[in-house]
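FAQ
Q: What does a multi-component entry look like?
A: The components come first, one per line:
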Amino acid sequence: MPERTDFLKPEVVAKLKGIDLKARLVVEGFLAGLHRSPYKGFSVEFTEHRQYMPGDELKRIDWKVYAKTDRFFIREYEEETNLRAYLVLDASGSMSYTTGKVTKLEYASYLAASLAYLLLHQKDSAGLVTFSDRIDRYVPPRSTPAHLNTLLGQLARLKPGGDTNIAATFHQLAERVKRRGLIIIMSDLWDEQTAVLTALRHFRHRKHEVLVFHILDPNERAMGFRTPMVLKDLETGQEVTVDPRVIRDDYQRGFDAYFKEFERGCREALIDYHRITTDTPFDRALFSYLERRSRLR
Amino acid sequence: MGFSAAGLLPLLGLAAIPVVIHILSRLRLRRAEFPSLMLLQAVRRERFSWLRLKELLLLVFRTLALAGLLLALARPYVRQRLPGLGRANDLILVMDDSYSMGYANHWQRAQAAASGLVKSLGPGRRGVLLTSSGALAATEFLPARALALILNSLQPSFADVSLGRALDQAAGLARKSRADVVAITDLQDRDVPAGWKPSADVPATLVDVGSPGFDNAGVARLCPEEFFPAASRPVRLKAELANYGGRNVTRTIVLDVDGKHEEKVVAVKPHGRTTVTFETVVGDSGAHVARVELRTDSLPADNTRWFVVSFPRQIGVLVVQSQRVPARYVVDALGPDSLSALKLTVIDEAEFGRQDPRKYAVVVATDAASLDRSDWTRLDYLIQSGGAALVMVGALPKDTVAMRKYFRVAGTAGAGGFVSIESADTTHPVLEILRRSDLGASRFFGHSRVEAPGGRVLVRGTDREPLMLETAGGRLIVWAFSPSPEFTDLVYKAAFVPLLHRTLYYLASAPLRSEYTVGDTIRLPVEANGPVAVVTPEGRFSVMPVSSLGRPEAVFTDTRLPGAYLVGNQPVAVNVEPDQGDLTQSPVQRLRDAGYDVRTGSSTATADLVPLMLCLAAVAFAVEMLLLAV
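Then the predicted structure of the entire assembly, as tokens:
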């Protein structure tokens, strides 16, 4: 019988049926782990007590205060301003890559579903954008519980394919989203680096908060092939012959430099950047979101 | 550069294995998908040229390593100059051209070594080229260019020769002029003269172009199993195969008689001999050439052997005996043998008058003393008419007037004791197969003193008197004794049988010898005095018979090539000396101890390149390992 925290592991989640179940178990497993966390009661914040006025609902009377003071006080909660979060999901061909149980796209989908679940339970609005070389789907953010089904339905039907044009897509999206919100990007970011960073800065320019989940397969850095082989680009179909034993070190150096540049660029633009691999438990990503969310309060 | 084991050279193709594997591996590379080649291509672009270069270098060095090993297997050698020879002095070059030099590439190596020496002759230096077969016996020093031309025209001979004669000649020349003596040889044990030692004033250098490990088989002998084979009856021919090498060999041997082929596969143990028997039927009488050939062998010269199977026509022999000397021992020696060509008719001397001797090819008179004048006259008539006679004069004949033109009996000798044989003319066809010792033990208790002016003494006794002589142009042979223990114990000796057979065959003009060795002089009795056609493997020519030593004989010496020769209508076989195929080398140390300067030309050259190839392979392998580690 799996523990609830097992549902934070991608390989366990992948075995579950239905993305709604996956999202629910991930979030509940995550929340179970947060039992004594400082994030308790984040959804609706207490602000003050006021005297009972006729017409107030009786259920809002604070009976504990009445017991102490013999007066009726009503608990006043300040409901937070609705956060408009956009879950931006890369569904290009390169996202179909896997060397384990889940593809990058599946991982991103589960993560997006979990975040949608979490957002909507916080009464925030969650929208969904999927893209490859252009925006494929755009689901505007809403905060109704029924919207969760819409989002999960979209995520469940997601298929990888097509080329990537991240920068152009981001620019397009930045222009399209008028109200400032939280842009949560889940992508492998395989595109021209400078252009991608420029596009991310475009979101910041539009006053959006940006959270980037850079999703990669572990083998993308490790280059774990042992013999010379022909590698085929999942998006362009281009093939190259490589001897991994010979180029592995250089490749990994180049890889690290490439992602350091992403980190540096994001840091400078005050963008949260998280590189996660498809074997990373989901709680790490959810924590990242919550940290960001807490700063937005 | 040459190769001692050139047969292994095709293995060099295996050096292409790395290239083939490289190509195949490129064709059969595993394919995999990858999210993006963006970074990979950038890295690959940086590493591309080095990688390609490294890959290429790996391939080259791997191929080189393998090629080096495979080349070493083929035992390469270089044609080295022999430093110091022919530079300061003139050069006397002795080429061992015995047929063993035809083994594998020995001759090419010898020519290359000789050519190198000739080319390295110092300015103004000249040289002489001699061969062990005597084919070249020049005594004139020639410039390098002329020597090179002669050298190119040389081929191994088929003669069984020794270097001794050529080294003697070279030493003689060297003493007259300041010259280096160099013999290029396969150091075959039988060729290098054990007794010949270079002197201090004429040092000799032997350049070894032989192979310490060789693999050669040859046909050592071919002959019929029966001494007197008969036509129309199965004839069993025995071929003896010799394996001179140190490994088991299996060969196919083919017999060819009158166009009929028969072949067998034979295995011969190392240093062993095996006899193969073929059974064939030859329909006609007369002489037939049989030829056996061994297929697929490294030394071709000793692979073929010829033999003339003779089924002589009937030779009628009339034996005239007396009471004192019966024909018993003659008849015992000549027959009865249904397969023999000799058909004997034995009569008493009294009956001789009633016989026509011209019906017989030869008349044998066992006791000349029993013949009367008329008998001698008839014998003379027989000789005049082309017949022949063997007259045995144990006791003084009554009357030899009719025969005086052929021989004279001066009396008797040896009374009271005995004489034995002092000398025998073994150059005579009758005696040439007999050794001195075969006859030497015979004792003659009484013999007549026979003289034959113009005749040829074949055997002389210890009393200096002739015991056998030939006269009447080879148509009359006179024995100074009769075939009886009263006169001699020769009749008890083994040599008596062949002696009598050969004498009768000789007198009957039957061929006495049909097998010769290359270089031998062929002498065959012929009937006519006119030119005799001779067909040899080289062509056709005519010889004039020589008759100074008796009856006419066709004599010729040009037997350079082995094969079947035809003299008139009589075939003869000329074969190589089989043991020349034994390529066992003289131990180098023994030769050095004898005073030869042995330059192990071939082995040094071989040894020179084998380690070089192994080093090359090792270096290539080491570089490959280094490249892999980088």
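Q: Is there any commentary attached?
A: Sometimes. For this entry: The CA atoms of residues 565 and 611 of chain B lie 50 Å apart.
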